[in-house]
Design goal:
The chain folds into 2 domains: 6-99, Translation factors (Elongation Factor Tu (Ef-tu), domain 3, Beta Barrel), CATH 2.40.30; 107-233, Rossmann fold. The radius of gyration is 18 Å and the shape is globular. The longest helix has 13 residues, at 123-135. The chain has 5 helices and 11 strands; from the N terminus they run βββββαββαβαβαβαβ. The strands form 2 sheets. The chain has a 6-stranded antiparallel sheet, covered by helices on one side. A 5-stranded parallel sheet has the order 9-8-7-10-11, sandwiched between helices. It is of the alpha/beta class. It holds the Pfam family FAD_binding_6. Its cofactor is [2Fe-2S] cluster. This is Oxidoreductase. GO terms for molecular function: oxidoreductase activity.
């Protein structure tokens, strides 16, 4: 069944990091979305010009009637610029979704669950972690998250709190531009797998080069390719 465009209204907006803004939108879907899915948004200028982008959903499927989007402001980004600088609560946005069936995790799928995100690629993984915490907290999960600096870690306080309070969740940060920081490499992957155990499911999300490199590292570490799912953002 083809998805149709609908009106979604912004109910809240707040900064998440210096470059990322959290928007909450009221939606009228007839069915719940699945953790890992995304939406398309469409902006129309007074002269009829349209711009369309896809954004992953950050919230849990158990969050009723609203979804959260975490939108990173990109240099010269016409859509991200609008959501960063112009959009306010009360505004109506054209939206289509939920979209996607391959890069999703449902609580019944179990674990262990390995999540690897680069930059804003952590957003759909946050949806999975939030869903897991509400519906299947006993599923072991580890998030390996690469960001440039600590200040650019999306949902940093939440992730650190979960790491401290949830017995079956572990957070590993790879801060590439901090003093003494590191990138995700074979050693980092090995340490994550040693802490988590053999994952039943691995999800990798980020820019194309990041995702390709991580997927290769996971295969080299012995994970069956069928257990690895990837989502790629841009070039």
């Amino acid at each position: 069944m083809a998805l149709t465009w609908q009106e979604a209204r912004i109910t809240a907006a707040a900064p998440e990091t210096a470059r990322v803004r959290r928007l909450t939108l009221a939606v009228g879907w007839s069915r719940p979305f699945r953790a890992g899915q995304h939406v398309d948004v469409r902006l129309t200028a007074p002269d009829g010009y349209q711009a369309q982008r896809s954004y992953s959903i950050a919230s849990s499927p158990m969050q009723a009637e609203t979804i959260d989007l975490l939108i990173e402001r990109l240099d010269d980004g016409e859509v991200s610029g609008f959501f960063s600088d112009v959009a306010e609560p009360g505004d109506a946005i054209e939206l289509r979704g939920p979209i996607g069936g391959a890069f999703v995790w449902d609580s019944g799928a179990g674990g262990p669950l390995l999540l690897v995100g680069g930059g804003s690629g952590v957003v759909p993984l946050l949806s999975m972690l939030r869903h897991r915490a509400e519906a299947a907290p006993g599923v072991p999960a580890l998030l390996l998250y690469s960001a440039r600096t600590r200040g650019e870690v999306i949902a940093r306080d939440e992730l650190m709190r979960r790491d401290a309070e949830e017995p079956e969740f572990r957070l590993r940060l790879a801060l590439t531009r901090e003093t003494g920081g590191r990138r995700i490499d074979a050693d980092t992957i090995g340490e994550a797998l040693a802490a988590l155990g053999t994952p039943a499911h691995a999800f990798v999300c980020g820019a194309n080069p990041f995702v390709s490199a991580i997927a290769d590292l996971l295969v080299e570490a012995g994970l069956p390719p069928r257990t690895i799912r990837t989502e790629r953002f841009g070039g």
